[in-house]
Specification:
Layout (H helix, E strand, L loop, with lengths): L9 H32 L9 H18 L2 E9 L2 H8 L1 H18 L5 E4 L4 E8 L4 H14 L9 E9 L5 H22 L1
Antiparallel strand pairs: 1-3, 1-4, 2-3
Helix pairs in contact: 3-4, 4-5
Amino acid sequence: MDFAKTNYDDRYFRLIEYFRGMAEKELDLLSKNIQLESYALNDDQTNLLNRKGFSLATEHIIKFAKRESEAIGVFYFDLDNLKALNDTYGHQVGDQAIKKFAQHLSATFRDTDAIARFGGDEFLVLFIRKQPNDAEVMLKRLTKLVESETSHPSISFSHGYTSSPVTELCASKLEALSQIADKKMYEVKRTRK
């Protein structure tokens, strides 16, 4: 080993400063790109996936499910009476209800599931169904969270659910599953009125 003291001149320190500045600019640019990507894929009100983010996430989930030979489950959720809530208490309260429901969805489903806000008060969840009763378990967990909510006014939701073996799944089939879950959700809404 060489223990001799090195005498660095001013050019060396300027070069180090130059590289440090470049690295800081690159890290800043990377941070901004990550933030822009998040804006492009996530709903800004709930921080759940938006339609584009959901589409990208489902591709990964389906590939994984095919590798593991698992089934896919699709839930479609809709908040009940959001218009009446907005008309009675104001849109700020309605927005809080949407955010709270999104938090309940995030607490209910796994990090590996795709949870998206698809419209004003509509949400879509795609998950890998490992057990035949996974959907029932998740729905009970969500219902318990929503019913235990102490904020006023309370919220309720309607849902539709369907599933499919992953071996039969393609993009058009996933769209069809989403439409089936949506249709089932509206059937539930009609029976409540």
